[in-house]
Amino acid sequence: DQQVKQNSPSLSVQEGRISILNCDYTNSMFDYFLWYKKYPAEGPTFLISISSIKDKNEDGRFTVFLNKSAKHLSLHIVPSQPGDSAVYFCAASYVNAGNMLTFGGGTRLMVKP
Amino acid sequence: KAGVTQTPRYLIKTRGQQVTLSCSPISGHRSVSWYQQTPGQGLQFLFEYFSETQRNKGNFPGRFSGRQFSNSRSEMNVSTLELGDSALYLCASSPGGPFYEQYFGPGTRLTVT
């Protein structure tokens, strides 16, 4: 039972355009969401997070949107750069879970110059 | 500030053996979590230690165990290795939690033959 799903295994965008990565979840207890970026042979790198009391959080080129009624979140990267090419994971947690994160399967983003 | 370090980076073991992996968290971080990444199952939570106590445990058999020392360094042990234990084992640290982002180490690539 996958509680966090990233339905697009891959995404290709042109440099300078917007990248939109999507994530759906089923567990209504989740109240904290994070996005991580992963390069091969490295551990995931934290990008941005959002708690369930917000519907948007912005950090530079990265913005995360949360739609609780739809149990959906998305990561927008504007403008996309070739260095953004990596696998992106969304993750979810809830207050009684401590630091236990439930991860989606990942989306491979390719930004073409 | 130094990041999360994991040793060894690569390991080859034979089925039936046991293995111990080590993780040194970021200085000042008291929570250490362990994750297993495989192509088939993705990133899965193993367990979390906070102030030397296991705070959460994922859905893994008892062959997987861990501990945390007073300096917050952590080890995980896998006994009676099976071929399916071949994976990237990632350690993540955070100041406490919940709702703190976790910082991942580069991982230990374990191959069981």
Detailed description of the structure:
The complex is a heterodimer of chains A (113) and B (113). Chain A has 113 residues and is mainly β. Chain A is built from no helices and eleven strands. In chain A, the strands form two sheets. In chain A, strands 2, 4, 5, 9, 10 and 11 form a six-stranded mixed sheet that branches. A five-stranded antiparallel sheet of chain A has the order 1-3-8-7-6, with no helix packed on it. Chain A is globular, with a radius of gyration of 13 Å. Chain A starts with a strand and ends with a strand. Chain B starts with a strand and ends with a strand. In chain B, strands 2, 4, 5, 6, 9, 10 and 11 form a seven-stranded mixed sheet that branches. In chain B, strands 1-3-8-7 form a four-stranded antiparallel sheet, with no helix packed on it. Chain B has strands spanning 5-7, 10-13, 19-24, 31-38, 42-50, 53-57, 64-68, 74-78, 87-94, 103-104, 108-112. At the A-B interface, β4, β5, β9 and β10 of A face β4, β5, β9 and β10 of B.
The oligomeric state of the chains shown is heterodimer
DSSP strand (E) fraction of chain B? over 45%
Low-confidence stretches of chain A: none
Radius of gyration of CA atoms of chain A, rounded to a whole number: 13 Å
* Record field, number of beta strands of chain B: 11
Count of beta strands of chain A: 11
Quick one: overall form of chain A?
Answer: globular
Question: What share of the residues of chain A does DSSP label as strand, in percent?
Answer: over 45%
- How can the largest sheet of chain B be summarized? 7 strands, mixed
Q: Describe the biggest sheet of chain A?
A: 6 strands, mixed
